[in-house]
Amino acid sequence: MRSKAPLVLMEQLVMVLVFALAAALCVQVFVLSDQTSRNYAARDRAAVAAQNAAEQLKGCGGDYAAAAEQYGGDWNGSMWGVSYDGDWQLCDGQSQAAYHVLVTPAESGQDLLGQAQVTVYTAEGEMLFSIPVAWQEVTDVG
């Protein structure tokens, strides 16, 4: 009569192989879900940063230089840029910046209506979030 030990060992080896494949699949799913969660968290923070910049610009009545002075960032005459580090804290240097908020003037096509586009990018250039902003411009009434 032959021993059944090799058959039992083969069965256990197959079970270990199946378990290892299932574990590898689970690890890949956890890594993917972590990356997806980080991406959505960055988009949420980008939306808040864009809204803050838009509200600052509206509060300053469309004065980009005043908005840059009060909120932070630089106004170069054609674009207002604000840089953030990886923890979404304002930073000065471009080298340590992980995210950039760019506010560019746009033509509204209507008198006394100012308009701009607020866009948030990663340091690699991927757009995370973008919103338009508009405000009523005030003229001196004599």
Characteristic key phrases:
single chain; 142 residues; alpha+beta; 6-stranded antiparallel beta sheet; 2 helices; 44% helix; 26% strand; rod-shaped
- Kindly report the oligomeric state of this protein: single chain
Structural domain count: 1
- Tell me how many strands there are: 6
- Compressed to H and E, one letter per element, the order equals HHEEEEEE
Question: What is the overall number of helices?
Answer: 2
Question: Runs with pLDDT <50, length 5+?
Answer: none
**How much of the sequence is in beta strands?**
25-35%
Termini distance? 114 Å
What would you note in describing this structure?
α1 crosses α2. Strands 1, 2, 3, 4, 5 and 6 form a six-stranded antiparallel β-sheet that branches. The chain has 142 residues and is of the alpha+beta class. The protein has two helices and six strands. β1 (74-75) and β2 (80-84) form a beta hairpin. The mean pLDDT is 91. The chain starts with a helix and ends in a 6-residue tail after the last strand. It has one domain (5-136). It is rod-shaped and about 110 Å long.
Summary?
The protein is an alpha+beta fold and 142 residues long. The chain has helices at 5-59, 64-71; strands at 74-75, 80-84, 90-91, 99-106, 113-122, 127-136. Helix 1 packs across helix 2 (64-71).
